[in-house]
């Protein structure tokens, strides 16, 4: 028996996907944070921040909690406030679902709505309004989840260890979206301490600046930002996957229809990124991602066909083109590589002779790094003798590996994420490099703007 509902926070289940992973070799598991009593992963953060404030004397009995929130943190704060006897005011952007607003009010919270399409430093933004209210109301405390280090710390202390224990240390890839950055920072820090070889992948909506994209509005709630939060430590993220609103909502709907998991749009983003990343992995890999909140918050939004149509977010799958298709059309060519013990001078002359801007670094047939023209330019600019510098000393991370069956959309996303190329492989043998111009030429020649067919799976009758 628990003393209060707050004791039921955490220790959420980890569930392997079964149907959405058909055709994949790697396993993909989702940690169902919607099983927390407030319905989301933010219960952990809300309780941790309030406990920290109480210990520090920042929040006294009868005090007021004010927070700018995408909804779920507000629900967690409102739930804790109800148990602890605090007044709670939540400031939300106007893109939040009516279900979330109603839920906050059900817990006794007061809700203030602000416009979405204003600059992040505007006094009318949800952070700006929350700051003003905190100044005006006596005894008010603002958790500031975007700058409160209790946020990533609670994931380091609880979520990360739970994942490690539930997978018996076999997790190889962790995928999570970034809102405040607390989840990915805290979990990644813990997992990498246990196993530095674990890869951490950020799942980011198209339009968020966190993965380096051009800022634009997006519909998925709770993840992606137009600024970099103080609670986010980017050094823990090894790679990014950028996911469109349409794909996020499509996968969230598929999770309900095919896996029985009713989760929110950010969970769709996470799972879409996890599935995409898992395509390039073998059977020894276990990918873990986060089911951030319950889909019951979004029944009037992306679970509604009319809402999707009105927002032009009905998912449509275009004709597939693979790495094999591109290589076949382009024809065979010699792969330019360099060994790690070669000199930078040799790389310079090889690049000049072949007219290439990067070289894969292979050792015993395995890609261990890459050398870029900018690296060589920096070396010469700094006055170093390229005949005395080995490639091993200056090489960057290896280019991503893709097999012949990999969809060219996946290649495009990798190039969009900042890679200068990808290595095409067959049975672990590196065959060729695919660069941006290769992709441009292929698409230009094939004119892939062909008729599309909707792939949304209809419910069974």
From TrEMBL:
* Pathway(s) served: Amino-acid biosynthesis; L-cysteine biosynthesis; L-cysteine from L-serine: step 2/2
Catalysed conversion reaction: O-acetyl-L-serine + hydrogen sulfide = L-cysteine + acetate
List the SUPFAM superfamilies: CBS-domain pair, Tryptophan synthase beta subunit-like PLP-dependent enzymes
What are its cofactors? pyridoxal 5'-phosphate
Binding residue positions for pyridoxal 5'-phosphate = 72, 179-183, 266
One of its GO biological process terms is:
cysteine biosynthetic process from serine
The catalytic activity of this protein is classed by the Enzyme Commission as 2.5.1.47
Boundaries of every CBS domain copy:
331-386
N6-(pyridoxal phosphate)lysine modification sites are: 42
Whether Amino-acid biosynthesis counts among this entry's keywords is yes
What's the protein called, per UniProt?
cysteine synthase
Alphabetically list the UniProt keywords: Amino-acid biosynthesis, CBS domain, Cysteine biosynthesis, Pyridoxal phosphate, Transferase
Can you name the source organism? Thermogemmata fonticola
**Which is an annotated Pfam family here?**
CBS
Q: Which family does it belong to?
A: Belongs to the cysteine synthase/cystathionine beta-synthase family.
- What's an example of a GO molecular-function annotation for this chain? cysteine synthase activity
